[in-house]
Structures are given as C-alpha cells and as structure tokens.
From TrEMBL:
<dbReference type="InterPro" id="IPR049282">
    <property type="entry name" value="BVU_3817_N_sf"/>
</dbReference>
<feature type="compositionally biased region" description="Basic and acidic residues">
    <location>
        <begin position="137"/>
        <end position="149"/>
    </location>
</feature>
<feature type="compositionally biased region" description="Low complexity">
    <location>
        <begin position="152"/>
        <end position="170"/>
    </location>
</feature>
<feature type="domain" description="DUF5606">
    <location>
        <begin position="3"/>
        <end position="50"/>
    </location>
</feature>
<dbReference type="Pfam" id="PF18347">
    <property type="entry name" value="DUF5606"/>
</dbReference>
<dbReference type="InterPro" id="IPR049280">
    <property type="entry name" value="DUF6852"/>
</dbReference>
<protein>
    <submittedName>
        <fullName>Uncharacterized protein</fullName>
    </submittedName>
</protein>
<dbReference type="Pfam" id="PF21186">
    <property type="entry name" value="DUF6852"/>
</dbReference>
<dbReference type="InterPro" id="IPR041218">
    <property type="entry name" value="DUF5606"/>
</dbReference>
<feature type="region of interest" description="Disordered">
    <location>
        <begin position="131"/>
        <end position="179"/>
    </location>
</feature>
<dbReference type="InterPro" id="IPR049281">
    <property type="entry name" value="BVU_3817-like_C_sf"/>
</dbReference>
<feature type="domain" description="DUF6852">
    <location>
        <begin position="53"/>
        <end position="119"/>
    </location>
</feature>
Length: 179
C-alpha cells in the first residue's frame, strides 16, 4: 500500500493528496469525487501524513498502514463509518487485536473506516510503497559520496578559464565634476 503524499488536514474532513508547495502554503487536492484543490497555509495548518499515523497499542503503537491492510483483508462487508459503536469495536478487535481499547475512541475508529472507504478504490491502495523511503526526505549519504567521487575524478589538469578568455569589463569613463 503506497500512501506517500496522502495527508489529513486538521480542521477539514476527508483526505488530500499533496500536489506541491508554494510560498503561500501546501497545494492539496481532495481525494473525494469533487477533486477540490486548496492551498493550506504553512504557518497555521497541521498536516499528518497517513504513513506516519499510528494507533495506540497495548505494548507498542500500530501503524495505520498495517491496520488499513488488515481491514482490506476482512472477509465480507466492511461496515460504514456510521455503524453502531459495538460493530466498529468488533471490527477493530479483528483487524487490530493489540490496540488499546481505552485510548482508541469510537470517533477514531469512524475516521479510520471513513479513510478506508475513500482509499480502497484508488490505485495507490493496491500498489506497493517505494522501498527504502519510509518517511525520509533527506538525501542519502550515498548521494554525498557520489558528489565527492565526481569531484575527485575531475582531471587534475583542468584549469579555471584564463583571463584572456573572459570578456573585458566595461569601465565607466565619465566623471562628474563639481560634486
């Protein structure tokens, strides 16, 4: 499941795809049928990537990606988010048996089921996540080594361009008298 670039925006319902970024904020496109594009302010809006969201567990937190994959593997019909709280609790006992039942509220379950219904028909739901890119945007150390290796392989006899090859600078020959 590839959820890279899919975010939840605080204060807004639904999920959004991160399209880009400009000076004013993040450019987001809604995943619902309307495909609304919005610009969320960098300073006042909180974005949560679905790859980074975890659910409270009894011993350790559970990744949302794993819970969504377990929901997809459920045999039969996945209940709607408006289903009874007991139905949602029973679903979560099946798909996330190690979740902390005291800390995971029914509202959290409703939100996760709503997100599942938004994502299940998208092609990114069935494609694999890129290998080795688990939430890391920084360049790899190998990239730095490659740049140093390229600099080291530069020929020793390569010189800076001579002054004769550079265009002559224009000099302002006018003078102001009486200033």
């Amino acid at each position: 499941m590839n959820l890279r670039g899919i975010v939840a925006v605080s204060g807004r319902p639904g999920l959004y795809k991160l399209v880009g970024q400009n000076k004013a904020g993040y450019v987001l496109e809604g995943l619902d049928a309307q495909k609304v594009k919005i610009v969320a302010s960098i300073s006042s809006t909180k974005l949560a990537s679905l790859e980074d969201i975890t659910i409270y567990g009894e011993e350790e937190d559970l990744k949302l990606v794993d819970v969504l994959a377990n929901i997809a593997a459920v045999k039969g019909e996945v209940p709607d988010a408006k289903a009874d709280a007991a139905v949602l609790r029973a679903l979560f006992v099946d798909v996330a048996p190690a979740h902390d039942q005291d800390k995971v509220y029914t509202s959290d379950m409703k939100k996760i089921v709503t997100w599942f219904h938004l994502l299940k028909d998208l092609p990114l739901f069935s494609e694999e996540a890129p290998a080795g890119l688990e939430g890391q945007e920084a360049p790899k150390a190998d990239d730095k080594v490659d740049k140093k290796a390229k600099a080291a392989t530069k020929p020793a006899n390569a010189k800076a361009p001579s002054k004769a090859a550079q265009p002559a600078k224009k000099v302002n020959m006018t003078s102001k008298k009486g200033v």
